[in-house]
């Protein structure tokens, strides 16, 4: 039987190689012991990465849902605040207009028309609300306000009804201007189509539907503009005409109250659906992350024992290396 001997250089290379392998094992097992996660996931799953891939895809999808629902929640909350403020202005002004129409005093007419013009400008401001530079009530067009400012919009309306001989004619022109296909859409409107439904959870969508063209908001603008125009001596300066305009304006504001409430209620339902979807998505995310951690988990006791084994091997290699490096020819010959 022949013996194979190794030279000093070969032994040195072998020891270095073995030391490198042991150090790599030690680092890997130390990482597993510290983090509780397997360092070699392919070995951990026996090369079956299908479940992890599916979980990762689901978590990516849920992360996208979380971004969408968070943004929609912020948008819907801001829109709800604006709708409530608009309804509050209209609801407060309507009885004041009726009272002024009954009093038939010029100073009261002037004061209420001025209040109506301020309310009109305020409502237009709410409808031009933007969040993070994106218009909320402009539908698909979000890079600029959907309506002109209050003064410019009221001037457009005044131009449309200019020349009316009676209050009835003025109202007819105003109705046409605010109707579908009228001046509000063709002249004043700078927005786009309503937003499309957006996915907020698996198999579920939600839509932020209100725009400045929604029926309840159209009618509110019409009622406020009618009251504001009473202060511009259209169609005449007589007390009867102004009283009729204020009464008609109050009727429009009161009549549009149910439509405004409907918009707010529908938005409230959407807000609740978004909140429910967020809760379900969060629960699913937690469950998936727990399943992922179980797949990736390393046995801490096994990792600790392997760390100890690797440390022992490393100490033996160091001792052997020190002994070999201390050998001398004189010791061998002696």
Automatic annotation (TrEMBL):
Residues 264-327 form the Flagellin C-terminal domain. Keywords: Bacterial flagellum. One of its GO terms (cellular component) is bacterial-type flagellum. It is found in: Bacterial flagellum. Coiled coil: none annotated. One of its GO terms (molecular function) is structural molecule activity. Pfam families: Flagellin_C (PF00700). Belongs to the bacterial flagellin family. This is Flagellin C-terminal domain-containing protein. The lineage of its organism: Bacteria, Pseudomonadati, Pseudomonadota, Alphaproteobacteria, Rhodobacterales.
């Amino acid at each position: 039987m022949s013996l194979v001997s190794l030279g000093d250089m070969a032994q040195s290379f072998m020891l270095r190689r073995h030391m490198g392998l042991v150090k790599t094992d030690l680092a890997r097992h130390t990482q597993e012991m510290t983090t509780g996660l397997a360092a070699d996931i392919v070995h951990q799953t026996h090369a079956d990465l299908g479940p992890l891939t599916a979980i990762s895809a689901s978590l990516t999808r849920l992360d996208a849902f979380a971004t969408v629902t968070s943004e929609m929640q912020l948008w819907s909350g801001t829109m709800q605040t604006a709708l409530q403020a608009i309804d509050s202005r209209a609801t407060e002004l309507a009885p004041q207009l009726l009272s002024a129409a009954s009093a038939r005093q010029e100073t009261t007419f002037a004061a209420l028309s001025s209040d109506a013009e301020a309310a009109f400008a305020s409502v237009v401001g709410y409808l031009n609300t933007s969040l993070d530079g994106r218009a909320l009530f402009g539908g698909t067009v979000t890079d600029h306000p959907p309506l002109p400012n209050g003064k410019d919009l009221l001037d457009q309306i005044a131009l449309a009804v200019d020349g009316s001989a009676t209050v009835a004619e003025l109202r007819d022109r105003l109705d046409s201007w605010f109707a579908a296909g009228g001046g509000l859409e063709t002249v004043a409107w700078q927005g786009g189509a309503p937003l499309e439904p957006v996915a907020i959870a698996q198999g579920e969508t939600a839509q932020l539907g209100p725009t400045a063209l929604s029926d309840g908001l159209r009618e509110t603008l019409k009622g406020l503009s009618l009251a504001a125009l009473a202060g511009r001596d259209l169609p005449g300066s007589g007390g009867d005409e102004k009283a009729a305009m204020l009464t008609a304006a109050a009727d429009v504001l009161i009549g549009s109250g149910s439509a405004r409430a409907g918009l707010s209620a529908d938005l409230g339902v959407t807000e609740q659906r978004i909140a429910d979807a967020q809760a379900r998505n969060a629960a699913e995310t937690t469950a998936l992350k727990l399943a992922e951690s179980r797949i990736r988990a390393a046995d801490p006791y096994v990792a600790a024992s392997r760390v100890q084994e690797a440390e022992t091997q490393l100490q033996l290699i160091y001792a052997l290396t020190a002994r070999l490096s201390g050998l001398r020819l004189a010791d061998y010959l002696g």
